[in-house]
């Protein structure tokens, strides 16, 4: 064997941002690394294409001297003019010296040697992105079926030119879109213990379906099992020492207890995964026992720990959250394989038997599936199914779904997001579907068809739905339906017409799981689909485009209000390459949001200062963050009507863009993605200019709105002054310094530190959820009314539902009379995550302070 050794005297490298926005003046660095001991005269050339313009004064060719063991960069300023991935190509050749290298020893060996490098750069359109997805499950039943799909777009003056992308996917299986994108069913972060389940659980249902229908291939099995193993291992990060699970785990995010709801979810998924991957049985049994330990004498599962989704909490009446949670936990236990005759299960259904008449639609739907698994012939199940059927919605012929009785936000002419049903509606409809088709009930297929038709129209372009829970439950329901109706023998043709073009594909048993994708012209607004033959086809049309931001839209946001300010760097105030970015958010709808995400996309050429982002977690201003190549995701447990602000540092990277375009900040409710707002912010490049930036304000992390009528403690009487009247009213503070010694002393002196929901409508205005003690949290779930002097006002109590801490003597709570007296010995503090964590630290982890 002959060996050949090749030596390359130099090589090239690109320095590029992760992405750029069309129209930005972008410096592209082409670096030459010289491996020789002597200097080289290099000619570096950027290949010109129609995708970008070269703005450099030196044009597309630059010469430079690169000496031995050194590197040097040529900088080409380009302006991308095409949206999408563009090719960048540069070459370098070593030449005879032409006085480029002055007073240097020039290598003769490398002359004529050439190297090249090619990279792709993602160029995004300017403006705010919009997306539509329309999905149809078409079953011609041996004949022909036609479907017209309209894709409306924004008006020309709002639409960003050349930003439209239209794509159609066709596949011969209702689970096909999920199979084609198991890795990324949601274009959302998966950064907490509940959200991670969306990367794990759907793989279970895919494998169950394909196994039951004999369609499982080695490739799909390996892929799905791989994602399951990763999801399972990642989930263990959110496990507590007692076997429970919580959103953030038993770590630096300081969750004090596990969540009964999330633990039930994990128990179910772990048990179902055992058929496909290795699961530690001891861990599973330990977690299941923790769940059963939180069952009350009446059979109900206690609500322990935080649940971030409001419709999982109930809230339409006393005790509904307990009923819904109990039904959810019973489903988890039964699907995990526990015997339905054990006391834990029978007692759980005793709890449901007593409460079902008070249940809201969501709870009824969960209960319906729980009773189906327990006893499909149960009279209680029959009653619940009758109630659900009587309240079903039928928007179009051949469709059926369920919703809460509250008014939905309708799609308006100005709403460019394709209107997709709220996550709660998808989830409860999926539970009803499973209640109808589980255990192969008579007439299941015919009853399921209109429900399936509605559900499939709510899917996103990636195989999932809007959020994690609706995706998990809906995919479980659809996989059960797909198993029920699968019989093979598919032979179907799909034709699609658009002006001046026609697309066609055939689907049979051998390719029913293969995705066909058609990229359509930008101007496409209507599709005419014709499906013929035996079987069914999933047809999804997806349209993306950008619109220009309008001030009236930003000011009129209906879900969240966002303010963005840019200041000089707090840590390096005279450094023109650093900034402090401050973002303030408040919830514009009643009550609270669910868990919310603030996505901050970086301006091209700017990066976050990681230490400043970490500080937000250390000071309890946020729950968690994730830094991605082009954005930072910030997690918040919830937002309310009081503004919540946070700030972090950004700095300019080596890529100094001279005219960076504005970047996008998105705020959305994780469990109701329709509740969202987007706004743009910009960072001007001021180095070398006379432009000034404002100095940082002296702000606190949380900005609260004060009420002048709030009761405040008066200063101590000074000697010689005339004593005033003694206040018998409680002290109401919307803002406290939770890190101060005064706050610590106030908490230590209080006999009871109640966390409560105040301002409730209905029979009782206050729900006391927890009493914080030096042994941790004691869960109470007590409903009372407040009693205080007629002259007293307290803004913390408010007219709308909020959370608060109530520091009070134990004697002021009368549980029999259902009242909580509030006088001068009582202090009410508006709840925040920061305050709660400080209270917990004072009373437990730093209990010696008391």
Automatic annotation (TrEMBL):
InterPro entries: A-macroglobulin_rcpt-bd (IPR009048), A-macroglobulin_rcpt-bd_sf (IPR036595), A2M/Complement_sys (IPR050473), A2M_TED (IPR041813), Alpha-macroglob_thiol-ester_cl (IPR047565), Alpha-macroglobulin_TED (IPR011626), Ig-like_fold (IPR013783), Ig_E-set (IPR014756). The keyword Glycoprotein applies. One of its GO terms (molecular function) is serine-type endopeptidase inhibitor activity. Residues 593-681 form the Alpha-macroglobulin receptor-binding domain. Keywords: Disulfide bond, Glycoprotein, Protease inhibitor, Serine protease inhibitor, Signal. SUPFAM superfamilies: Alpha-macroglobulin receptor domain, E set domains, Terpenoid cyclases/Protein prenyltransferases. Gene3D superfamilies: 1.50.10.20, 2.60.120.1540, Alpha-macroglobulin, receptor-binding domain, Immunoglobulins. Belongs to the protease inhibitor I39 (alpha-2-macroglobulin) family. This is Alpha-macroglobulin receptor-binding domain-containing protein. The lineage of its organism: Eukaryota, Metazoa, Spiralia, Lophotrochozoa, Mollusca.
